[in-house]
Q: What sequence folds into this?
C-alpha cells in the first residue's frame, strides 16, 4: 500500500500536468485544483459590480439538462470528500467545502481562493465529490459549483466543523456554538410582497481568503447580480458562542429600486399557542423564529410575535436611524423541545445591527400563509425611504449576530410568551403576555403602570399579576374586536416614569 502524504501529492503535480490530467498552469494545492493567479484586492470586486451594472444583465452559465433533471434523492447522494477541503493542512483556522450545481441550483457559480495577495479560480472537478454507484454518468462540464460551506475550530483546536454556508441565489446561513441551522439571510431582497414579481439577486462569484494560522475569522467577498442591480459584498465572519458577520455592501442599481430590502432574514413559522387552530400535531410549537425584535432610533425595544396568517400580511414599522432588528427564536425549552428530530429549540436568532446612520425607512415584516414547515414564510428587512437611484453607488454596512439572544435583549423585561384565545365566560378574546423576570419589574404589580391600546374595538381593563411559573409578570388583555377588519394592539409596562418592558405589538384579525 502506498501512503500519499500532502508532500507526496504535491510532488506528483508536474507529472499530472504532463499527462494532461491537470491543465497547464493549474496547480493541485489546498486539496483543489487552482488556476493561475492574478493580483487581488477588495476594490476589484466593487469595480466588477460597477462594470456589470453599466451593461445589460447577462446571467451566469447554466448547468446542463441532465444535471437540472436530477431527482432530490440523487442530488442528496452527492457528498464533498473532506480530504479535498480548501485550505486543509495549511495551518489556517478556516477551511471550505463545496456544493455541486444541479436540481434547484441551476447556475454555475465562480469560486476563487485568495492566498498571498493572488486570486486563483477553483476548478470544478467531480473527483472531489463522493457519489453512489447508481449516480447518473453525467459530464463534469455540465455542472459547476453552486456554493460552499465554511468550517472552523468552534469547539476544540484541530476539530473543524461547519458554521456557515452560502448556497442558492444570495442566501446564506450560519450557526453559533451549540445551535443548529434554521433562519437564513440574503444579500438583498427585491420587490418582496409587492405588486410586481419578486426578483432574486444571485451571488455569481465568490473569493475566499486564506486565513493565517490562529486567525479565527473568515473573509469572503461576493459579487451580486440580477437584472436590476449589481453589488459587491465583503463578509468578515467570526464563529463562536455567537457567530458574527461584519458586512459591507456596495450596490449599483441598473434601475431605480423602490422595493429594495436591506439585510433580509427569511424564516419559518407554522404555529404555536398563539395560533394553533387547524394544526393537528403532536408538537406544541413549530417554528424557526417566533418574533420580530426591533430597537428603534428612539431607543424603544419592540416585540412583535409572529403568526401564520390566513392571507398574506405586510407590516411596516417606520423609523429613522434604526439601532437593530431581527427575527428571534425565544422558545428554547418546554413548548419548543417536543420535536427530538427537528430540534427547533436550537435554531439561532438573527439580529441585524446597522453600522452608521441608515436614515429614514421602515422595518418590513412579511407573513405568508403556509401549511408546511418546509416553507419559509416569514421575511424581515429594512426598506430605505428613498429609492436606490440607478447609476449611483449605495453603501450599507451592518453586523449580523447569529445567536441565542440578541445584544438588544435584557435592557428591559423581555417578552417570553404570548398566548391567545376566546374568552370562556365573557365576550371577547384574551391575550396573555408573559414578561421574564427583571430587576426593573420589582415584585409588586401595583407599582407598575400598564399602558395598552387598540386601533379598533374595545379593551377591558388589563390585569397584571406575578406569574409563579416564570418568576416574572403576566399581563392579561381582553379585546372585544369589531365585526370586521384588523386590530393593531400595543402594550407596555412603566414604573416611576420609565418604560421597564419591551413594547408588545400584535395585529389581530378574524381571518
A:
Amino acid at each position: 500500500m502506498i501512503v500519499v502524504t500532502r508532500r507526496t501529492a504535491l510532488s506528483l503535480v508536474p507529472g499530472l500536468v504532463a499527462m494532461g490530467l491537470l491543465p497547464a498552469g493549474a496547480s493541485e494545492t489546498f486539496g483543489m485544483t487552482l488556476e493561475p493567479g492574478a493580483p487581488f484586492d477588495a476594490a476589484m470586486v466593487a469595480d466588477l459590480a460597477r462594470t456589470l451594472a453599466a451593461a445589460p444583465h447577462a446571467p451566469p452559465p447554466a448547468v446542463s439538462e441532465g444535471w437540472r433533471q436530477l431527482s432530490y434523492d440523487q442530488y442528496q447522494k452527492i457528498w464533498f470528500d473532506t480530504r479535498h477541503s480548501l485550505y486543509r493542512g495549511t495551518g489556517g483556522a478556516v477551511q471550505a467545502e463545496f456544493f455541486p450545481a444541479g436540481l434547484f441550483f441551476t447556475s454555475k457559480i465562480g469560486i476563487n481562493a485568495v492566498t498571498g495577495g493572488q486570486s486563483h479560480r477553483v476548478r470544478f472537478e467531480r473527483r472531489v465529490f463522493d457519489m453512489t454507484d447508481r449516480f447518473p454518468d453525467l459530464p463534469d462540464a455540465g455542472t459547476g459549483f453552486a456554493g460552499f460551506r465554511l468550517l472552523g475550530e468552534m469547539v476544540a483546536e484541530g476539530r473543524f466543523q461547519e458554521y456557515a454556508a452560502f448556497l442558492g441565489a444570495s442566501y446564506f446561513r450560519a450557526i453559533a456554538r451549540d445551535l443548529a441551522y434554521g433562519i437564513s439571510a440574503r444579500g438583498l431582497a427585491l420587490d418582496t410582497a409587492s405588486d410586481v414579481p419578486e426578483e432574486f439577486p444571485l451571488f455569481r462569484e465568490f473569493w475566499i481568503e486564506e486565513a493565517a494560522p490562529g486567525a479565527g475569522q473568515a473573509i469572503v467577498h461576493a459579487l451580486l447580480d440580477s437584472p436590476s442591480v449589481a453589488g459587491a459584498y465583503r463578509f468578515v465572519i467570526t464563529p463562536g458562542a455567537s457567530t458574527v458577520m461584519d458586512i459591507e455592501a456596495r450596490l449599483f442599481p441598473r434601475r431605480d429600486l423602490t422595493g429594495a430590502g436591506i439585510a433580509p432574514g427569511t424564516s419559518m413559522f407554522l404555529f404555536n399557542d398563539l395560533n394553533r387552530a387547524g394544526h393537528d400535531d403532536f408538537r406544541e410549537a413549530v417554528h424557526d423564529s417566533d418574533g420580530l425584535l426591533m430597537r428603534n432610533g428612539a431607543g424603544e425595544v419592540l416585540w412583535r410575535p409572529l403568526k401564520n396568517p390566513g392571507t398574506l400580511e405586510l407590516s411596516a414599522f417606520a423609523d429613522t436611524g434604526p439601532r437593530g432588528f431581527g427575527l428571534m427564536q425565544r422558545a428554547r425549552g418546554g413548548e419548543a423541545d417536543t420535536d427530538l428530530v427537528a430540534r427547533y429549540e436550537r435554531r439561532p436568532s438573527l439580529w441585524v445591527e446597522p453600522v452608521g446612520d441608515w436614515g429614514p425607512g421602515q422595518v418590513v415584516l412579511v407573513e405568508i400563509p403556509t401549511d408546511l414547515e418546509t416553507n419559509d414564510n416569514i421575511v424581515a428587512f429594512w426598506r430605505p425611504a428613498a429609492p436606490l437611484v440607478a447609476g449611483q453607488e449605495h453603501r450599507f454596512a451592518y453586523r449580523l449576530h447569529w445567536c441565542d439572544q440578541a445584544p438588544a435583549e435584557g435592557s428591559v423585561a423581555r417578552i417570553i410568551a404570548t398566548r391567545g384565545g376566546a374568552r370562556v365566560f365573557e365576550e371577547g378574546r384574551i391575550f396573555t403576555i408573559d414578561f421574564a423576570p427583571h430587576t426593573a419589574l420589582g415584585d409588586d404589580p401595583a407599582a407598575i403602570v400598564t399602558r395598552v391600546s387598540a386601533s379598533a374595538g374595545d379593551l377591558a381593563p388589563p390585569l397584571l399579576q406575578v406569574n409563579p411559573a416564570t418568576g416574572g409578570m403576566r399581563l392579561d388583555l381582553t379585546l372585544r374586536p369589531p365585526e370586521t377588519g384588523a386590530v393593531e394592539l400595543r402594550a407596555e409596562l412603566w414604573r416611576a416614569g420609565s418604560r421597564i418592558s419591551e413594547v408588545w405589538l400584535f395585529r389581530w384579525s378574524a381571518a
